[in-house]
């Protein structure tokens, strides 16, 4: 993308921020991949909005881009899994294990087995 396009995106971001179009700001940040808003990311993490955290992050990096990306995506998905177990929602935990965490099986089979065993605990907490 040209520097002119980049500057235009930043001006649009600034305008949207000033006009309080918060969701639009974050969508443009994510879609353009130019500006990672750490404050927004931290707010979503602290609120436990893991799907939004992963969606926002995916605008800047993919699971298989590098080992750091893989690690952070794994930790996000693991947290979703642990919270489902904590709520005793085994169906959701199994869904997360099968759909979200299974991609990490090839990278660390032992860790995947360990987190799978958490399902068998009667009292997770």
TrEMBL record:
PROSITE patterns according to UniProt: CTLH, LISH
Domain CTLH: start-end pairs: 34-92
SMART domains: CTLH, LisH
Keywords: Repeat, WD repeat
Single biological process term from Gene Ontology: regulation of DNA-templated transcription
InterPro entries, per database record: CTLH_C, LisH, Topless_fam, TPL_SMU1_LisH-like, TPR1-like_2nd
One of the Pfam families matching this protein, by short name: TPR1-like_2nd
Domain of life: Eukaryota
Keyword Acetylation: no
PANTHER family xrefs: TOPLESS-RELATED PROTEIN 1-RELATED, TOPLESS-RELATED PROTEIN 3
UniProt protein name: TOPLESS-related 3
Species the sequence originates in: Actinidia rufa
